[in-house]
Amino acid sequence: MSTTLEKSANQKKKEEAMSINSLINPSMESMMTETKPKPIIEIDNVDFYYGATKALHGITLNIEPKKVTAFIGPSGCGKSTLLRCINRMNDLVDIARVGAGQFRISGVDIYHPSVDVIELRKRVGMVFQKSNPFPKSIYENIVYGLRIQGINDKKRLDEVVEKSLRGAALWDEVKDRLHDSALGLSGGQMQRICIARAIAVDPEIILMDEPCSALDPIATAKVEELIHELKTKFTIVIVTHNMQQAGRCSDTTAFFYLGKLIEIGNTEKIFTNPTQQQTEDYITGRFG
Amino acid sequence: MPIEQPTAKKMPVNKMPIAEALRTVQRPTFLGITFDDAMHYFFRGNATVSILVLFLIVIFLFKEGGGFFSQNVQNLEIYRKAGLEYVDIVRTRVDNHRTLGRFLGELRTKQLNLLHGDESALAGYDAAVERFSVTIDEYQGFVSEYTEVATGIKEKFKIGLDMEVAKQNFQREGKFEESGKIVIPEIDFATETQIFRDSVPQIKVIDEKFHTEVNASLESFPAMPSVELQPQLEKFKELVKLHQEDVRTMEKSLTEWNWQKPIPWYETFTSFIFGRNWLTASFWQDWYGIIPLFVGSLIIAILSIAIAVPFAIGAAIYVNQVATRHEQNLIKPYIEFVSAVPSVVWGFFGIAVVGQLIRTVSELGVVSWVPFFPIAERLNIATASCLLAIMAIPTIFSLAEDAIQNVPNAYTESSLALGATKFQTIWIIMIPSALSGIVSAIILGLGRVIGETMVVLLCSGGRIQIPDFSKGLGIFFQPVHTMTGIIAQEMGEVANGAIHYRALFMVGIVLFFISLLLNYAAQQVVKRYKISIG
Ligand SMILES: Nc1ncnc2c1ncn2[C@@H]1O[C@H](COP(=O)(O)OP(=O)(O)O)[C@@H](O)[C@H]1O
Ligand SMILES: [Mg+2]
Fold it and tell me: Does B25 touch chain A (CB under 8 A)?
C-alpha cells in the first residue's frame, strides 16, 4: 500500500502537525473554513490532570448544536474524561483538575466560579455506560429530575413521563407497567429508561458514555435509532468504541489518541478520507 | 416517531436559555450560605462535637490517670524512707524459708500415703522438720519487731500528709489563720531510721546461729522410709543450700541499705507496667503493678477467642455458603440474638451453671487421669472464657459473615464453572478472599472480649495473682482478676484523687490503648490485605 519512504514522510508530516498548536492543526483548519452555525460547546486548549498524570493534552474542539458528535479512540485515550468535563462530573474525582484552557457552553465558561454546577447538570444530561436506573418504579425514575426541582404537579409529571418515554421510544413497551420496578426491564429497556430520565428535565445537551456497550444488537439498534431521533431536539455527544456505530449515528467524529485530539471532522470524511495516518489505522482496525 | 404528541401541551421544564441560565442562576442563599453549605456545616459541626467530646474524655482520662505517677513516686519513697524496704529484705527470706517448710509438708503427705497412714515410721523425719522450721524463728522475731518501727515512721509521715492537705484546704478557703496554726512536724528520717542501721550487727549474730542450726537440722534428717522419695529429700537439701546462699547476701543488702538512696525516675513507671503485685489498702505497703491483671485479661481473652473462633467462623461459612435460605433465616437471628442478652445474665449463668458444670465434670472418675483434675475453684479462667466465647461469637460471626458476603459472586461462579466442588471453592477461593475481613472480625472480637467487664468480674474468680504457668494446661483452671474487673470492683470504694483511684484510671488508660491498638490492627488488616488470594 505504501512504501517505507512514503511512510516515513507521512510520519514526519504527522509529527509536524502535532507539534504545531492544535488551533492551526490542518484538520481543524479545514473544519473552520466550512460555514457552520455557532458552536454550542467550545473546548479551548484544555489540559486535564489526574493528580500529576496529564490525561488530556491541549484539546481544542467545537461541538455544533442539534448534531451528534462522536468521540472515538482506543481505551484509555481520555474520551470519558473529556466527556465528563462537559458537565463537570469530574468535580467528583478528588485528584482531577482542569490545568489549562476553557470549556464554554453558549459562550459561558462553565468552570467559572459563578456558574452553578447544579444548573449546569440540569442543562447537560448524561447517560452512563452501565444502565443505572434507580431501584424505583419506571414512573418515579423518569420524574426524579423534576421532583428534585420541586415539580410535583401530578398532571404535569404524567405529561412529562409520557413525552419522555415516547421520546425514548419506550412508551408503547412500558405504558401498562409504569409503576413496576425499573429493575425488571431488559438491558436495552433500562438504558432507554436512563435516556428518558435524562431528557425528562429538558436539557440542551446529552452526553452518552458508551451507552450501547452492554446491549445486544437489537437493543443497540433501537438506541441508535433513538439517538437519531433525539438530535432534532438535543445536542448529543457520544463516546463509542464501535466504529460502525459512530459511522451510523454521528454527524461529526473526533478521534483521540493518548490524550490528544488527532482529528475531528465530518463523520463521512473521517471514515472515508482521514487526513491523519493514525486515524486511518484506527478506523481500518490496524490498531486500537 | 414523532417526539411531540399533539395532546402533550408544551410546557418546558427549563424556561431560560442555557447561556442566560449559566450566567445568572444561583442557588438561593441565606446570609450568603446555600442550603447545601448549611447541611455541610451542620454535619461537620456534629462530627466536630463528637470528636471534641471524645477528646475531652481522653483528656480527662489522662489527667486523672497521669497523676498516678507522681503519687506513686511518693508511695515508693516512703517505702524506702520509713524502712519498709529494709524490713522486707529480711521478710523475703523468712517467706522463702516457709516455702521450703511447705515442701517438707508435701513430702510428708506423699510418704504417709505410701505408708498407708502409718505415722510411726515418720517420727525421725518430723523431728528434723521441726528442727529445720525453728531455725527461722529469730529472723521472724526481728521482722515483727522492726515491722512496728517501720509502720510507726510511715504513720507519722501519713499524718504529715493529711495535715498538709488540711492546710491547703484552709488556704484555698481563705482561712489563713487556721492554716497558720497547722504546723507540720518535720520527720527526721536520719534519726528515725538509725535504729535500722544499728540492727545490722544483730542480724550478723542471728545469721551465724542460723547457718549452723540449719546445717545441723539437715544432717538430722533420716533416710526416707520409701527409697523412691529419697531424691526429693536430696532436692530439698539442695534448695536449702541455695536458700542459705541467699541469706548470706542479705547481710550485705542490709548494710548497704540507705534511706536516702534516691528512687530512679523510671521506677514509678516500671513498678506499674512491670509490677507483679496489685496490693491495695494494705496496712504495710500498697503496690500497683498491672501485670497480674493484664495477664489475667490476656489469658481469658485468648482462651475465649480460641473457643469462639471455630464456632463463629464455621457458622459464618455454613450460613453464607451451605445453608438453605430457610436455615439462614433461622440461624442468623438466633446467633445475633445472643448479643442481646445482658452480660450480667451471662455472668449469673456462668456462676450458677458453667462453673459448677466444669467442676463436676473434673471430679468424674473417668477424667481423673488429667493431671490438674479435679479442679479446686469453680470460678476460674475457663469458666469466664466459656462465657466470653459465647458473647464474642455473635460479633465475630456477623463480621465474618459480612466479609464472606462481600466476596464477589463472580469469583465463586468462575470457580464452580471450572469444575471445582463447593468445598474446594470455599477453601481455595472464598476463605482466602474473605480472609482479611475474617481476621479483622477476630481482632474486633478480641477487643470485645478484653473490654467485657461483668462476666469476668463475676466468673473469673477474682484472685489477684499471676497464674502459675508451671502448671501447664492447669493454668486455665486457676482464678484470676482482670483489668476491667478491678476497675468495676474497686472504683466505687476509692477516695477521689487518691493514688488508688488514679491507679485505676491508669488501668483504664492501658485498656484504652489496647482497644485502640486492636481497632487499628483490624483496620490495617482490612486495608493492606484487601482481597488477594495467596
Ligand atoms: N478517576 C481516575 N483517577 C485517575 N486516573 C484516571 C481516572 N479515570 C481515568 N483515569 C486515567 O485517565 C486516562 C483516560 O481515561 P478515560 O477517560 O477513562 O479513557 P477512555 O474513556 O478513553 O477509555 C486513563 O489513562 C485512565 O487510567
Ligand atoms: Mg471510557
Answer: yes
Measured over the CA atoms of residue B233, residue B238, residue B240 and residue B241, the dihedral's sign is: positive
What residues contact residue A223 under an 8 Å CB cut-off, 6+ apart?
A188, A191, A192, A195, A211, A212, A215
Give, for B154, the enclosing helix (H) or strand (E).
helix B137-173
Distance A214 CA to ligand 2 centre (A): 13
3-state secondary structure of B370: coil
Q: How far is CA B160 from CA B20, B170, B282, B348, B494, in A?
A: 85, 15, 19, 46, 21
Domain-wise residue ranges, chain B: 32-65, 67-257, 292-533
Instruction: Please tell me which of the candidates A146, A151, A166 has its beta carbon nearest to residue B5.
Output: A166
> Cβ of B1 and A229 within 8 Å?
yes
Is B26 at the interface with chain A, CB within 8 A? yes
| CA angle A5–A11–A16, rounded 5-degree value | 130
| DSSP symbol at B355 | I
Which of A163, A231, A234 is the mutation pick for testing B, counting most B CBs within 10 A? A163
- Indicate whether residue A240 lines ligand 1 (CB < 6 A): no
Q: Are B275 and B468 in contact (CB under 8 A)?
A: no
Per the listing, cell 517438707 goes with B104
Contact predicate B526/B436, CB 8 Å? yes
Q: Is pLDDT above 90 for B307? A: yes
Neighbours of B372 (CB within 10 A): 15
ipTM above 0.85, yes or no: no
Please check whether residue B231 is in contact with residue B109, taking contact to mean a CB–CB distance below 8 angstroms. no
Say what the pTM is.
0.73
Does A55 contact ligand 1 (Cβ within 6 A)? yes
Q: Which residues contact B153 (CB under 8 A, 6 or more apart)?
A: B81, B82, B83, B187, B189, B192, B193
Q: Compute the distance between CA of residue A263 and CA of residue B75 in angstroms, rounded to an integer.
A: 85
- Give the H/E segment covering residue B247: helix B230-256
- Residues B78-94: tens digit of each pLDDT: 888 888 888 888 898 89
- CB of B362 within 8 A of CB of B380? no
Partner residue facing A105 (CB), from B22, B25, B27 = B22
**Going edge to edge, which strands form the sheet with A124-127?**
A124-127, A205-209, A235-239, A68-72, A252-257, A260-266
Answer whether B502's CB lies under 8 Å from B67's CB. yes
**Per-residue confidence at B2, pLDDT binned at 50, 70, 90?**
very low
Which residue's CA is minimally distant from atom 1 of ligand 1?
A93
pLDDT greater than 60 at residue A17: no
Q: What is the mean pLDDT of residues B226-252?
A: 87
Choose the residue to mutate in A46, A71, A77 for probing ligand 1, maximizing ligand atoms within 8 Å of C-beta.
Answer: A77
Q: Does a cis peptide bond (omega within 30 degrees of 0) precede residue B374?
A: yes
Taking the CA atoms of residue A108, residue A113, residue A115 and residue A119 in that order, the dihedral angle to the nearest 10 degrees is 140
Nearest-atom index, ligand 1, CA of A84: 17
The region that residue B117 occupies, defined by phi over 0 for left and psi between -120 and 50 for alpha, beta otherwise, is left
Q: Ligand 1: does its nearest atom lie under 6 Å from the Cβ of A77?
A: yes
DSSP-based three-state secondary structure for A235: strand
- The dihedral region occupied by A210, where left means phi > 0, alpha psi between -120 and 50, and beta the remainder, is left
Read off the pLDDT band of A258 (50, 70, 90). very high
Please state which CATH number belongs to domain B292-533.
Answer: 1.10.3720.10
- Give yes or no for residue A55 having a pLDDT over 90: yes
Backbone angles phi, psi at A107, to 5 degrees: 85, -5
* Interface residue of B4, B22, B39 to substitute, partner A, most A CBs within 10 Å: B22
Write down the pLDDT at residue A16: 47
Q: Chain A closest CA to B35's CA: distance in Å?
A: 13
